[in-house]
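Ops channel
N.P.: pipeline sanity check, posting one input/output pair.
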């Protein structure tokens, strides 16, 4: 049994230690917001937070997260908005109409949340660098950047 928390809920899973965290989240825990994209940590669709750091869940063995705190797109709002509702990035994604097909967007949002936790007021270049590892087949990068800037502005009380 491997124990960790997912979105502030303690869980125990019975799985081989080399099982990718992605499949535990989707198949055992029913958290399907985290997507399978490439399976080799190149696209970012499977991005989750492990102890606050962005990680590719498709290549993260479940044994390596024992005792850790995992946050998925389903739990992101709870990490920032004490009153419930959506995270500022999720609100900004909607306002900017960032997704086209939407498949990569949960990973994009999780990567953006990690970026903003490290750099709460990123420049355009910081955003480009911080988001470079997350791919979008629809090429919605300009809308993604716009959404990140909207979230920064919201987090700064309208300034930014």
């Amino acid at each position: 049994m491997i124990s960790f928390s997912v979105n502030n809920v303690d869980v125990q899973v019975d799985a081989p230690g080399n099982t990718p965290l992605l499949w535990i989240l989707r198949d055992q825990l029913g958290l399907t917001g985290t997507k399978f994209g490439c399976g080799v940590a190149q696209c970012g669709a499977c991005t989750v937070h492990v102890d606050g750091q962005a990680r590719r869940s498709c290549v993260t063995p479940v044994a390596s997260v024992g005792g850790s705190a995992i946050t998925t797109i389903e739990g992101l709002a709870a990490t920032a908005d004490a009153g419930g509702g959506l995270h500022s990035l999720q609100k900004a994604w909607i306002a900017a109409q960032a997704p086209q097909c939407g498949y990569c967007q949960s990973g994009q949002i999780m990567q953006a949340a990690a970026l903003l936790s490290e750099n709460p007021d990123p420049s355009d270049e910081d955003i480009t660098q911080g988001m470079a590892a997350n791919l979008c087949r629809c090429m919605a990068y300009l809308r993604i950047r716009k959404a990140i800037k909207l979230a920064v502005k919201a987090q700064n009380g309208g300034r930014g």
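N.P.: looks fine end to end. The chain has six helices and five strands.
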